[in-house]
Amino acid sequence: MPEKVKKLYEGKAKVVYETEEPDKLLLYFKDTTTAFDGVKKAELKGKGSLNNTISSLIFEILHRYGIKTHYIQKLSDNEMLVWKAERFPVEVVVRNFAAGSVVKRLGFKEGQRFKEPLVEFFYKSDELHDPLICESHIELMELAPTETIPLMKETALKVNEILSGFFKEHGITLVDFKLEFGKLPDGSVGIVDEISPDSMRLWDSETGEKLDKDRFRFDLGDLLEGYREILKRIS
Ligand code: C5P
Which residues form the SAICAR synthetase/ADE2 N-terminal domain (predicted)? Predict the structure, then answer.
């Protein structure tokens, strides 16, 4: 079993460790939950394990469809082994229904279904509070190689198709989600970071109940109860 060799970086939700193999990293999923640029923060025992388990399950589904990601395997409750990647400071968001920042920014009604999935790019910068950007900014600021822009967009839409169908089968609506990409050791571009209820909006298809991190952001109910319900339905 791969061992942690050196702590490389500690983020809001994860700790990244080097392993004995230079091209593999170990991610430790923390119980810390933050929102609004870290202004709201809590320790929720068991959250790290839920996110690691849900994220691993999703990466395994994506691999079955031939989507490239950094995921190698789930090592323990809170640990995931991944390929080391050169991360692009870009967040790719796909939206099927209006919620969150797009409601505030453009005045859509929450829950309004989009005719086509909407793809948005954000510049990953704590200092600038992750501003919305367009493809020209990615090129101009060299945030990611130009040729990867259409690839990120196509991959995000394909992931949306796969995951929308998957969650629908389990009575859950995939409202929106965020992906990050990076260059993997073999030179290809793949999905990095996590894909969990911290980075997706998931609503109960029948009742509309929010099962994701919005429960924590807006005090809508017990966060872990929502995450456990998601895991119960999809596993
Ligand atoms: O806040 P906004 O509506 O733009 O978020 C869109 C989607 O991206 C949501 O599912 C949210 O959880 C996710 N997101 C994220 N990390 C961010 C910003 C948004 O995972 N820094």
Answer: 7-233
